[in-house]
Design goal:
This protein is mainly α. The chain is built from 4 helices and no strands.
Length: about 90
């Protein structure tokens, strides 16, 4: 049973690395970087199960992915993070 937990944590860590790329990119609008920061905060919340943490982050990212001011590459990165987090299960 330890393997799926490790797998979930590895996926969450990978998602956080991808989000950090967005946060550190000054070409991405501030509100989108702020949403990525909030999504990371949700993913780090150890008081919640991995599935809930992933769902909270997906909710934040899904909302901001509709922003018309977002560069195409940033939207693609966010969609990739969402796709990865959708595979996290409790």
């Amino acid at each position: 049973m330890a393997a799926p937990v490790f797998d979930n944590e590895a996926k969450i860590r990978q998602a956080m690395v991808m989000l950090m790329r967005l946060i550190n990119d000054t070409g991405v609008p501030r509100n989108i970087r702020r949403a990525a920061t909030e999504a990371i905060r949700q993913l780090r919340d150890e008081s919640l199960s991995p599935g809930v943490r992933a769902a909270n982050a997906i909710s934040i990212l899904d909302e901001v992915s509709q922003d018309p001011n977002m560069p195409v590459y940033a939207r693609t990165l966010i969609w990739n993070v969402i796709t990865l987090l959708e595979t996290v299960r409790d």
